């Protein structure tokens, strides 16, 4: 890599260090690592923010603690150095994390994006060919146990859709496997996700696919009180839309891509 690349990378890391330190130093607040990654995911990849947290901890600029969630997750909490009476604030934070980590809640959140996706594509004349499938026509994916959430058809063409309604990125190896799966089946890959790194979006584009980034964590309407609590306490963008069409321009972004491919 050239010197300019190294310089840009160093500046990028310095920016993350500065921004994370400024956020944590603002007052008597307790954060957790995933939260800080999400709050800064527009300017920085999650792993860059995580690296900044580790560096600041090593310097003594911030302090961290490890808490065990009731559902087995390890929660790394973060606070300003010198914040002595943080335990009550930390417990409130962990309580919120435990609430949305409850297995029936996480399943409902994951299922909600699948429901909205199925509804949104059906409303735009896409016909469901299969669900939770690794087969299309006479082709079957057998290299791994992976499958696709949906395969839709329209205008004599097909797309394979994978939905990820999570705070974390889709696993990169999983993404690449899904791209290979779609290539094997002869269909275009489409990812409907809360977020994804721009470099990975480019991978999908180069594979002939499209990434529909929602930017919002979508919950069922019955979980609206929890969604509001999470927004207020953690600063996440959480919504309870009745349809993807109600999210400004969401389906239209995909349809613009679809029409551009049709014109090729």
What does this protein look like?
With 264 residues, the chain is α/β, with parallel strands linked by helices. The chain has 2 domains: 3-101, Arc Repressor Mutant, subunit A (Orthogonal Bundle); 104-262, Trna Endonuclease, Chain: A, domain 1 (3-Layer(aba) Sandwich). Helices cover 48% and strands 21% of the residues. It contains 9 helices and 12 strands. It has helices at residues 3-24, 33-39, 46-59, 87-101, 103-123, 172-185, 198-206, 224-234, 250-262, and strands at residues 31-32, 62-68, 74-80, 127-133, 135-136, 139-140, 148-154, 157-164, 188-193, 210-213, 217-218, 238-239. The strands form 4 sheets. Strands 4-7-8-9-10 form a 5-stranded mixed beta sheet, with helices on both faces. It has a 3-stranded antiparallel beta sheet with strand order 1-3-2, sandwiched between helices. It has a two-stranded antiparallel sheet with strand order 5-6. Helix 1 packs across helix 3 (46-59), helix 2 (33-39) packs across helix 3 and helix 4 (87-101) runs antiparallel to helix 8. The two termini are 35 Å apart.
CATH architecture classification name of the largest domain: 3-Layer(aba) Sandwich
The H/E string reads HEHHEEHHEEEEEHEHEEHEH
| Beta-strand residue fraction | 15-25%
CATH class descriptor name of the largest domain: Alpha Beta
Helix content: 40-55%
The largest pleated sheet is described as: 5 strands, mixed
Spans of at least 5 consecutive residues with low confidence:
1-7
Helix-strand makeup class: alpha/beta
CATH topology grouping of the largest domain: Trna Endonuclease, Chain: A, domain 1
Mean pLDDT: 92
In terms of quaternary structure, the protein is: single chain
The count of DSSP E runs of length 2 or more, i.e. the number of strands, is 12
Span between termini:
35 Å
In the sheet with the most strands, the strands line up as 4-7-8-9-10
Tally of individual helices: 9
Dominant shape: elongated
Domains counted in the coordinates: how many?
Answer: 2
Radius of gyration: 21 Å
